């Protein structure tokens, strides 16, 4: 009986060895290497309107076993912007054995611009205003995400309600690519009560972005209309009152980047005055 048990043990041992050798041969013959991804260039320049098909131009994938597997290539991820203003694209490719390879390269945009703020009214208020809610008048637009007004943040301000003067509010907004725009927005409080009989100046825009070094535009072109009384339904054409509106652009320096303002002032026949302001961002 003991001899039979020894025989069985030897047989099992031999079987284990055979199975181990077979497994080693099997694993040695398996395809465990993923494809090789190559680029025509390490940095690609594209438009913000371009899709994955453009990002995949000049990208190939080749596998030792399966040959050309470029049709398996996908854009797996695009990172946030880095400090150099570029993003990183991660590509992935697979072979018939389901081996996956990833590789990265930089992408730059020929027509990208950071998110821009807009204002739907002047940032000029009155000392009689019991509350100033800047979030009601600030919007933001992004070339990737469209309207991102919901993500505008007011991080700090030095506004003193009821006290006339010039103040600043720091606003910021992020887009989905991690780019942040910030602005020290001038806010004005006129040391007077808002009067329904006072005139009103409406502008076509309340914030504009201009290029550093450019000539100053014709500021009067931003006058949309003028009302002689705030409570009047009659709205006079801008052309009639352009020469009557006083414009002060002394705060604007087109030679230096920064946030400035242009003041528009008008006095109606009842000797009541109003001032509206256009925010000018020089980039």
Q: Would you write up a description of this structure?
A:
The chain is mainly beta. The protein has two domains: 36-109, Immunoglobulins (Immunoglobulin-like), CATH 2.60.40.10; 116-282, Sandwich (Immunoglobulin-like), CATH 2.60.40. The chain has helices at 2-29, 52-55, 238-241, and strands spanning 36-39, 43-46, 59-63, 67-68, 74-78, 87-94, 100-109, 116-119, 124-126, 138-142, 146-147, 153-157, 165-174, 180-190, 200-203, 207-210, 223-227, 236-237, 246-248, 258-267, 273-282. It is elongated and about 120 Å long. The mean pLDDT is 88.
Summarize this structure briefly:
This protein is mostly beta strands and 283 residues long. The protein is 13% helix and 41% strand.
């Amino acid at each position: 009986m003991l001899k039979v048990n020894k025989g069985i043990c030897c047989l099992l041992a031999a079987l284990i060895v055979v199975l181990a050798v077979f497994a080693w041969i099997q694993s040695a013959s398996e395809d465990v290497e993923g494809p090789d991804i190559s680029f025509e260039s390490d940095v690609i320049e594209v438009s913000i309107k371009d899709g994955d098909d453009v990002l995949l131009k000049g990208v190939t994938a080749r596998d030792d076993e399966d040959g050309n597997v470029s049709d398996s290539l996908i854009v797996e991820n695009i990172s946030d912007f880095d400090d150099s203003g570029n993003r990183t694209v991660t590509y992935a490719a697979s072979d018939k054995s389901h081996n996956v390879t990833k590789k990265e390269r930089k992408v730059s945009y020929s027509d990208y611009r950071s998110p821009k703020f807009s204002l739907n009214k002047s940032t000029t208020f009155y000392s009689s205003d019991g509350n100033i809610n800047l979030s009601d008048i600030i919007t933001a637009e992004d070339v990737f995400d469209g309207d991102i007004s919901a993500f505008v943040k007011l991080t700090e301000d030095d506004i003193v309600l009821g006290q006339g003067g010039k103040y600043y509010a720091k606003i910021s907004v992020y887009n989905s690519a991690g780019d942040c725009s910030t602005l020290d927005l001038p806010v004005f409080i006129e040391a007077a009560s808002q009067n329904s009989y006072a005139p009103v100046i409406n502008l076509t825009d309340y914030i504009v972005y201009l290029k550093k070094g450019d000539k100053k535009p014709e500021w009067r072109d931003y006058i949309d209309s003028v009302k002689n009384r705030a409570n009047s339904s009659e709205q006079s054409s801008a052309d009639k009152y352009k020469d009557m509106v006083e414009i002060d652009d002394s705060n604007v320096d087109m030679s230096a980047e920064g946030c400035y303002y242009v003041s528009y002032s008008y006095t109606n026949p009842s000797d009541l005055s109003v001032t509206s302001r256009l925010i000018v961002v020089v980039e």
